[in-house]
Amino acid sequence: MSRPDRLPAQLPRLLVERAVAAALEEDLGLAGDLTSQATLAPHATASASLSAREAGVIAGLDLAAAAFRLVGDGVVFTPALADGDTVAVGGVVATVTGPARLVMSAERVALNFLNHMSGIATLTRTYADAVAGTGAQVCDTRKTTPGLRAFEKYAVRCGGGANHRYALDDAILIKDNHIAVAGSVTAAYQAAEAFAGHLVAIEIEVQDLAELEEALAAGARVVLLDNMDNEMLRQAVAINAGRARLEASGGVKLDRVRSIGETGVDYISTSQITMAAQPLDLGLDVTIGV
Predict the structure, then answer these.
(1) Would you call 243 a catalytic residue per the annotation?
(2) Which of 24, 93, 127, 234 has its CA 20 to 30 A from that of 242?
(3) Catalytic pick from 17, 54, 213, 226?
């Protein structure tokens, strides 16, 4: 796995702390960590190592750090890696020291974020490596876990992928249903152009080569080629002749992603990198307890 050339921008601290605080509130409930209170003395301290039980790409260290910071005073979280770094089996990701009750109370929330996001980064890196050298870039979609979109899309960037639009309000994507209601590709695109401000991007989805030609004639600068086989994608690239940026999408899985990239499209979007990623197995093991 190669590290992405451009590392992701840092997540906003307010966004991180709000999500982590909600997760801690959910886990601690009204009475706190009963197990730790029952078994650990108030003055007990612990030193722990957060390490990888399988190889992968790390993402979500800021959220893990926030979990230990927000749970109470005295816990020190020290990363050994940065988001976007690869880790081997047994590799240390971070160390944690402080009051034992607090370390144990924050453990699950920290790992839930870190394991989930690292799983997405790891799968994304596999897709990105698969298309290396083709000129195509792997992108995510809006198919994300409700409430976690910002973090999942950040994890995609950690893995070397790119982000599609974040939500319905940051770009216009004209899909087949919009075209059906508007009446035609041309009508839908012209309406979008009339509506959009000068900084709002417009992309239009097409189902076949005839619709592609209509979209290009209407002035489309970004076109989504939906559920086309590789031969049709190659024909679309030839018809386009560099006029617009082309995105291939629809049922893209790892076994096909490189062949799609080799057709000459600019982008390949897939929900697999967010929706099918397995959590990366990371664990927290106490090395010293006093």
Answers:
(1) no
(2) 127
(3) 226
